[in-house]
């Protein structure tokens, strides 16, 4: 049925877009030979980054940075940061928090990831920034991307220049600013699983000194795993939409003010956790249906509504050119988010059979809310031999969460049937016990600076030194534990200086090498899933990086290499009580503690891009990471020390891409894109140490681009795309329970569709 609907949608969309395009093309001016030549690809494009708070050429920036630009996102049919989970950047790992794609867990080089995202008093180790604004929570990161110019992935500690808690690295998302000239694009698309997308990016003509831009995006898809309960939402569906309005005021060449407001809606259902190997305590229904191959339907159905997340924010970026050599910038922001959680994704995995009329079907409910405001100042200057930057950063956050876990189902005789639990259906949250509730407040102040000296007598040498002093004040309150009011609190503060030293040397006009030393940290906190709200200390990283960058063969080839050695101290680790099917307690109990031993993350990264023949671009990215296990005391193990493997750290990961452009003499061009991404397995949980499967994901896109529509320059593009083209299946999350058996979450099946974009 789904395929029949898709074919009808594809046919209707193709006819609706193609006919007017052909008619308008007859009136369009034919493309000249110069236009055709401009589409030829004979060299690699220059890549501009702002990783050091000023625009620089990627090849002249002495740190390890990977860039995914707007075209690469389009080629991969990426709609959010979560789309990068396919492995586009091998040293970057992006996974959902357990079954919930609304919150993302991010690690770089095996550093920064945590096992639990629903922690108001806990921070991530990889910072995510949008136009310079730090995103404080893992929730909301699954929202749709707006009109992105590029995503910069900065690897290794970035504490000197980027906000807070960037011990593993940073993702810096740069959006397109208003141009002041009328133009833009509209797009629409359809896909399997009843999916569709729409988009509008509109630049308006300048009014006086003010330029305006409007962005609106939407993507919707049905579930990929059926929920057997009639009338309930399927698993792994999404409905994402968002809008952004920006205005750029430029009254003179020396001053600019950019204001932007964005709002997003992200409704998802959880991934389905499939029962792989049944344990002794599961029902006959589960035993009969357990499979180690991906199922199209869950074994057990249950009530499932959307997890709805809403984010909104205000941004004000000011820039003053004080002189030819001095610039002052201000970045101000205020953001809010709410995230609801209605999670029946574990219904097959943790449902034990306890006899007729016994309740089961744990429905994991939670509400997360947050608001934050931040202010940053940057003073950027240049002298004949020195480039420098100094600044200050302040961040305040208030965040809270709660959890409820009602059992929604009742077993029938023999465990061969089940019904809705009348005690919890229809669901009334006011009648359901709140298992836990907490709130946390954070204030962070940073003073930072960095300077690069290029001696006049040795212009190939660049010496950079910098540092950041950070003061983090954090307090929290856990005021409900297991349904009872309590008064547990923590209040702590940490002051820390993180230095950075970088020595770079130009080997020639198109080659350089560098050596970098840097440190970073992640603030401490307390775990709201615990019953005692025990505090834990900060996590610290010290890193050394050696790099080589080159561009050669008339700019047809680019080779970048990086070697890294990072020391991880006081790593924050999560430990959980094993799920006991006979306890009747459905709340997760967890404690976070610091590792006793020091770990190291060592490895190498390679990025190679080449245009071997005109119009063909080949890219190869590879990352090798060897990271130590660390020892910690299991708080639920009577003081026993245990060895814990690192999270999100595949030993080998890589990505190969091919892009081929076929220009037509007088009419448009045809573009082919293919990428293959592979990865070894890795660990996703510190308390359930199961190695995920290795993976190999292929994405593809074929697009007819630059089809002229009229004499004013409007063009159309039509593309066919597929994610996971080969329909490969692997488990990216695994669980093991002695009583219930093994279970896991499979990657998305093959998705494909048709997109049409009109640019004007």
Instruction: Give the radius of gyration.
Output: 26 Å
Number of helices: 4
- Extract low-pLDDT stretches: 1-38
The portion of residues forming beta strands comes to: over 45%
| Arithmetic mean of pLDDT | 92
Task: Characterise the protein shown here.
This protein has 760 residues and is mainly beta. Helix content is 6%, strand content 55%. The chain has 4 helices and 43 strands. The strands form 9 sheets. It has a 22-stranded antiparallel barrel. A hairpin with a 2-residue loop joins β13 and β14 (255-268). The longest helix has 24 residues, at 2-25. The model is unreliable at 1-38 (pLDDT under 50).
Features:
single chain, 760 residues, mainly beta, 22-stranded antiparallel β-barrel, five-stranded mixed β-sheet, 4 helices, globular
Spell out the blueprint of helices and strands.
Layout: H1 2-25, H2 33-39, E1 48-49, E2 56-57, E3 65-69, H3 70-75, E4 92-97, E5 100-108, E6 126-130, E7 133-134, E8 148-155, E9 169-175, E10 183-191, E11 195-207, E12 210-221, E13 238-252, E14 255-268, E15 274-278, H4 284-289, E16 307-323, E17 326-343, E18 359-362, E19 364-382, E20 386-404, E21 407-411, E22 418-420, E23 436-453, E24 461-481, E25 484-508, E26 511-522, E27 525-526, E28 535-536, E29 539-552, E30 557-569, E31 572-576, E32 590-594, E33 599-613, E34 616-627, E35 630-633, E36 641-644, E37 652-663, E38 669-679, E39 695-708, E40 715-723, E41 731-737, E42 741-746, E43 751-759
Parallel strand pairs: 6-9
Antiparallel strand pairs: 1-2, 3-8, 4-5, 6-7, 8-9, 10-11, 10-43, 11-12, 12-13, 13-14, 14-16, 15-42, 16-17, 17-19, 18-21, 19-20, 20-23, 21-22, 23-24, 24-25, 25-26, 26-29, 27-28, 29-30, 30-33, 31-32, 33-34, 34-37, 35-36, 37-38, 38-39, 39-40, 40-43, 41-42
């Amino acid at each position: 049925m789904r395929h029949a609907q898709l074919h009808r949608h594809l046919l209707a969309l193709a006819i609706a877009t193609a006919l007017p395009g052909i008619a308008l093309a007859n009136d369009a001016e034919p493309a000249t030979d110069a236009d055709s030549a401009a589409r030829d690809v004979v060299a690699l494009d220059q890549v501009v980054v702002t990783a050091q708070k000023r625009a620089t050429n990627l090849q002249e920036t002495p740190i390890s940075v990977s860039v995914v630009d707007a075209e690469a996102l389009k080629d991969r049919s990426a709609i959010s940061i979560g789309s990068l989970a396919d492995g586009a950047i091998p040293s970057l790992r992006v996974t959902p928090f357990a079954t919930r794609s609304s919150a993302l867990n991010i690690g770089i080089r095996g550093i920064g990831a945590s096992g639990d995202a629903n922690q108001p008093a806990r921070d991530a180790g990889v910072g995510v920034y949008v136009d310079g604004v730090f995103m404080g929570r893992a929730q909301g990161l699954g929202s749709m991307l707006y009109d992105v110019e590029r995503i910069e992935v900065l690897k290794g500690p970035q504490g000197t220049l980027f906000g807070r808690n960037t011990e593993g690295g940073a993702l810096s998302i740069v959006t397109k600013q208003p141009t002041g000239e009328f133009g833009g694009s509209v797009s629409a698309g359809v896909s399997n699983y009843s999916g569709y997308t729409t988009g509008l990016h509109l630049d308006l003509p300048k009014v006086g000194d003010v330029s305006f831009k409007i962005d609106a995006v939407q993507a919707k898809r049905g579930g990929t795993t059926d929920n057997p309960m009639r009338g309930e939402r399927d698993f792994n569906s999404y409905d994402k939409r968002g809008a952004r309005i920006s205005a750029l005021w430029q009254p003179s060449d020396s001053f600019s003010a950019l204001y932007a407001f964005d709002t997003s809606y992200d409704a998802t259902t959880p991934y389905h956790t499939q029962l792989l190997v049944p344990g002794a305590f599961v029902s006959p229904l589960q035993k009969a249906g357990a499979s180690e191959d991906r199922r199209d339907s869950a074994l057990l159905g249950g009530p499932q509504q959307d997890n709805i997340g809403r984010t909104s924010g205000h941004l004000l970026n000011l820039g003053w050119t004080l002189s030819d050599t001095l610039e002052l910038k201000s970045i101000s922001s205020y953001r809010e988010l709410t995230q609801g959680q209605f999670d029946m994704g574990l219904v097959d995995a943790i449902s034990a059979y306890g006899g007729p009329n016994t309740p089961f079907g744990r429905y994991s409910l939670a509400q997360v809310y947050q608001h934050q405001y931040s202010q940053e100042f940057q003073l950027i200057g240049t002298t004949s031999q020195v480039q420098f930057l100094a600044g200050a950063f302040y961040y305040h956050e208030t965040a809270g969460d709660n959890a409820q876990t009602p059992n929604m189902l009742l077993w029938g005789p023999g465990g061969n049937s089940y019904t809705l639990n009348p005690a919890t259906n229809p669901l009334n949250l006011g009648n359901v016990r709140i298992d836990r509730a907490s709130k946390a407040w954070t204030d962070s102040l940073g003073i930072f600076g960095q300077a690069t000296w290029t001696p006049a007598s040795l212009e190939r040498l660049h010496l950079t030194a910098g540092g950041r002093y950070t003061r983090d004040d954090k307090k929290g309150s856990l005021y409900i534990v297991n349904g009872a009011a309590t008064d547990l609190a923590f209040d702590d503060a940490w002051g820390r200086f993180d230095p950075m030293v970088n020595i770079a040397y130009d080997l020639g006009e198109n080659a350089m090498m560098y050596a970098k030393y840097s440190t970073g940290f992640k603030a401490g906190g307390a775990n709201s899933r615990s019953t005692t709200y025990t505090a834990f200390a900060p996590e610290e990283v010290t890193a050394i990086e050696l790099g080589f960058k080159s561009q050669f063969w008339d700019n047809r080839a680019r080779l970048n290499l990086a070697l890294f050695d990072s020391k991880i101290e006081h790593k924050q680790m999560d430990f959980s009580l094993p799920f006991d099917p006979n306890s009747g307690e459905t709340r997760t109990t967890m404690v976070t503690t610091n590792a006793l031993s020091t770990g190291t993350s060592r490895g190498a990264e390679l990025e190679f891009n080449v245009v071997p023949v005109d119009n063909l671009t080949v890219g190869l990215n590879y990352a090798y990471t060897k990271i130590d296990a660390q020892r910690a005391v299991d708080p639920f193990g009577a003081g026993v020390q245990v060895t814990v493997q690192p999270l999100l750290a595949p030993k080998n990961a890589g990505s190969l891409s091919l892009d081929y452009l076929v220009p037509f003499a007088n009419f448009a061009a045809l573009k082919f894109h293919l990428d293959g991404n592979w990865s070894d397995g890795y660990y996703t949980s510190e308390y359930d140490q199961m190695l995920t499967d290795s993976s190999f994901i292929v994405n593809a896109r074929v697009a007819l681009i630059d089809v002229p529509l009229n004499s004013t320059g409007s063009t159309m593009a039509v593309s066919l795309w597929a994610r996971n083209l080969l329909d490969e299946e692997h488990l990216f999350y695994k669980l093991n329970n002695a009583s219930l058996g093994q279970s896991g979450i499979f990657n998305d099946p093959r998705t494909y569709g048709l997109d049409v974009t009109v640019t004007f």
